[in-house]
């Protein structure tokens, strides 16, 4: 019995049923944690017909060879229902062999086996469960066709411009045997895969082209079968999200100071992404303009806050999912100048050497520094260094160009273990910024756009544009204004005025009126005066006497309009006194006019007569008033308390007079006497014209009675013709409809 196993002994003494029962009993007494023991038994003595094939039992038994560190065979299966704690027994049988391999007490869902490669393989797995009946699964195959490679255990995808880039990772033992693989894909929701799988070489990343950028795809991968990999199963489905084609949009940028932290600032960036594209996160790439220590930051929020120095930074923000990265949006964080009153001095030794100096007490706090220098339009150069003893550092650039302006900034870094920047965020502070030239020169161009404004009798305002920085070639110390009187063919003295470099305008004063001037402007540095600008001619205003006279007259007229009215009124009163109108006197106002209509009627009758202005008409003498007539008998001047009597008397007088005159004129023909006049005494009631003066009114007043001699001497009295009196009324230009008035 030497060399024979216990299964052989068992076979010779016991029946097959007893043998299988002992196998199960043996497997049930082996602890689950112990390694599975392999037993070799005669296949004909094994029987397990009581274990049935059932859909709810163990199933999908599969055996194959795979490449790991060494080639090995393995069987895998899936458990039955319910998924309780179970043990499995694996039986491997090859028909050409009399012996079977028995793998009892398996708790996993796979088992490494040993077989003969030249014989067919038959495998059964038995599921032992105390609560259910025994179930089994069967597998048969040829070992030559059971060499399996894959599927890949992972794959990464990148989409760009309608293309899909894949990177596949195979199991460690399979990767060196797989030379090619194929891919099939379809859009999510579609039941049709691509028309034919796409084959790729395993050594390189492969691209699938002509995809719809906005579609989500499902991808499966398998190797291409060969003599090393006879089996190439498809991988599980990989879901590839749509391509991100729209960059984020920056909606907020803030650059704020941090209290009590000079040289640092809080930068806040906020952005938003496309609503139609799915993002898993955002990738933020931030780097100094010098290129030092770029850092990639991943965030799931569309906002980032950074504590930065005063250097210039470049920030790129992209949306990210597991298949693509969107185009980046860029944001430049500009550089800030200097910090407060802190000074940084630079001494240039040559075009390959210069020294920077800082405050002495700075090294008590910081020992790590970084310096950046650059010329406008060129990339920033940087260098970090350690310095704990001195307050200066000599640098050796590759070569400084003459007449070029350089800027330099010194930063301090709090980390003392290394002066190199570990992280962009909150890693350094700006100390100060300065400017320097390796060699200075005079400006090679002049101020531009010179113009004159507000020209007066003795002044003018000049304005000009700054000299381009690249043409100054040094630190501009100021401008020189050169001006002279412009006289053709004659030399004149030039005057110069120095203006501060910050100004671009100046007012020239103390000029001569009505004089033409020539002006030129130039800039100057420590190396000398630069090129002069083109000439500008202007002429000061001349004194305009006409204008002055007009202004004076306007001033006088304005004064007269304001103050002249009261003065003129007073002068009129003094020089031209008012003459009273007799018609408005009290005396004439008391004279009643009851016979006005009768008088007007007589006048209207006379208007139809032909006017005779070439003859003198005489009437008979009217008896003079007797000397003894009392003044009270004159009806016109009779003063009595009875106003009615007076008015009646006056009217009777007028009627009598008018009737007598009318009778004379109407009964007899007027005779013209050229040689004889009848002189009668003038009646005091007769007025020579329609205008009654004070003198005429006094004549109408009662006079003292003349003596007898005087009465006899006055034989006749010349009385003005009543017709003349009436003709004065009739000759008036007053129309018939115009109201006339006279004294009765």
UniProtKB/TrEMBL annotation:
Which PROSITE patterns does this one have? Answer: FN3 (PS50853)
- Topologically, how does it sit relative to the membrane? Single-pass type I membrane protein
What's the encoding gene here? LOC114443509
Q: What are the entry keywords?
A: Glycoprotein, Membrane, Receptor, Repeat, Signal, Transmembrane, Transmembrane helix
What family is this? Belongs to the type I cytokine receptor family. Type 2 subfamily.
Look up keyword Kinase and say if it applies. no
Q: Name one Pfam family in it.
A: fn3
Q: What is this protein called?
A: Protein sidekick-1 isoform X2
Q: Could you tell me the superkingdom of the organism this chain comes from? A: Eukaryota
Domain Fibronectin type-III, residue spans? 151-249, 446-543
Please name the source species.
Parambassis ranga (Indian glassy fish)
Signal peptide segment? 1-32
């Amino acid at each position: 019995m030497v060399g024979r196993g216990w299964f052989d002994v068992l076979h010779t003494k016991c029946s097959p049923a007893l043998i299988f029962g002992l196998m199960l009993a043996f497997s049930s007494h082996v602890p689950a944690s112990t390694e599975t023991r392999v037993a070799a038994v005669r296949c004909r003595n094994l029987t397990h017909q009581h274990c049935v094939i059932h859909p709810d039992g163990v199933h999908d038994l599969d055996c194959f060879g795979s490449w790991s560190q060494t080639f090995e065979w393995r069987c895998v299966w899936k458990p039955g229902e319910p998924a309780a704690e179970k043990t499995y027994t694996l039986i491997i049988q090859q028909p050409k062999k009399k012996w079977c391999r028995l793998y009892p007490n398996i708790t996993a869902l796979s088992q490494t086996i040993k077989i003969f490669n030249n014989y067919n393989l038959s495998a059964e797995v038995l599921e032992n469960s105390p609560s259910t009946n025994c179930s089994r699964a069967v597998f048969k195959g040829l070992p030559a066709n059971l060499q399996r490679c894959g599927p890949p255990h992972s794959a990464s995808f990148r989409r760009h411009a309608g293309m899909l880039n894949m990177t596949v990772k195979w199991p460690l033992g399979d990767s060196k045997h797989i030379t090619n693989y194929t891919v099939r894909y379809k859009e999510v929701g579609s039941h049709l895969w691509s028309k034919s799988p796409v084959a790729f070489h395993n050594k390189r990343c492969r691209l699938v082209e002509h995809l719809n950028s906005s579609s989500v795809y499902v991808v499966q991968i398998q190797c291409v079968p060969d003599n090393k990999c006879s089996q190439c199963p498809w991988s599980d489905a990989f879901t590839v999200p749509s391509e991100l084609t729209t960059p984020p949009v920056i909606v907020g940028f803030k650059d704020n100071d941090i209290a009590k932290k000079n040289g640092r600032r809080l930068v806040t960036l906020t952005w938003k992404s496309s609503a139609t594209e799915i993002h898993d996160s955002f990738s933020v790439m931030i780097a100094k303009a010098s290129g030092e220590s770029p850092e990639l930051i991943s965030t799931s929020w569309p906002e980032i806050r950074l504590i930065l120095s005063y250097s210039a930074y470049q920030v790129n923000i992209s949306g990210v999912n597991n298949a693509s990265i969107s185009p980046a949006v860029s944001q430049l964080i500009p550089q800030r100048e200097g910090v407060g009153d802190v000074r940084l001095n630079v001494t240039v030794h040559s075009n390959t050497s210069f020294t920077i100096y800082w405050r002495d007490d700075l090294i008590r706090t910081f020992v790590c520094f970084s310096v950046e220098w650059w010329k406008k339009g060129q990339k920033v150069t940087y260098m970090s260094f350690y310095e704990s003893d001195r307050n200066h550092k000599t640098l050796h650039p590759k070569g400084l160009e003459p007449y070029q302006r350089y800027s330099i900034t010194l930063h301090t870094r709090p980390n003392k273990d290394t002066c190199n920047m570990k992280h962009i965020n909150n890693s350094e502070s700006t100390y100060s910024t300065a400017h320097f030239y390796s060699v200075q020169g005079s400006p090679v161009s002049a101020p531009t756009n010179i113009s004159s404004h507000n020209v007066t009798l003795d002044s003018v305002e000049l304005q000009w544009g700054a000299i381009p920085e690249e043409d100054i070639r040094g630190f501009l110390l100021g401008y020189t204004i050169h001006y002279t009187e412009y006289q053709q063919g004659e030399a004149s003295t030039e005057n110069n005025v120095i203006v501060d470099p910050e100004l671009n305008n100046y007012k020239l004063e103390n000029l001569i009126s009505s004089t033409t001037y020539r002006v030129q402007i130039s800039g100057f540095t420590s190396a000398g005066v630069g090129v002069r600008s083109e000439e500008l001619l202007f002429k000061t205003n001349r004194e305009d006497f006409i204008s002055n006279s007009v202004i004076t007259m306007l001033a006088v007229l304005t004064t007269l309009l304001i103050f002249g009215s009261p003065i003129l009124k007073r002068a009129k009163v003094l020089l031209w006194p008012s003459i009273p109108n007799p018609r408005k006197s009290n005396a004439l106002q008391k004279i009643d006019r009851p016979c006005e209509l009768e008088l007007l009627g007589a006048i209207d009758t006379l208007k139809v007569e032909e006017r005779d202005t070439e003859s003198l008409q005489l009437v008979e003498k009217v008896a003079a008033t007797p000397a003894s007539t009392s003044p009270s008998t004159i009806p016109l001047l009779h003063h009595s308390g009875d106003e009615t009597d007076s008015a009646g008397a006056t009217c009777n007088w007028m009627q009598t007079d008018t009737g007598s005159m009318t009778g004379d004129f109407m009964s007899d023909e007027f005779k013209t006497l050229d040689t004889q006049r009848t002189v009668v005494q003038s009646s005091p009631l007769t007025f020579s014209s329609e205008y009654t003066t004070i003198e005429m009114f006094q004549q109408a007043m009662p006079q003292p009675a003349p003596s007898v001699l005087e009465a006899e001497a006055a034989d006749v009295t010349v009385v003005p013709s009543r017709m003349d009196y009436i003709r004065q009324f009739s000759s008036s230009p007053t129309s018939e409809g115009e109201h006339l008035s006279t004294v009765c």
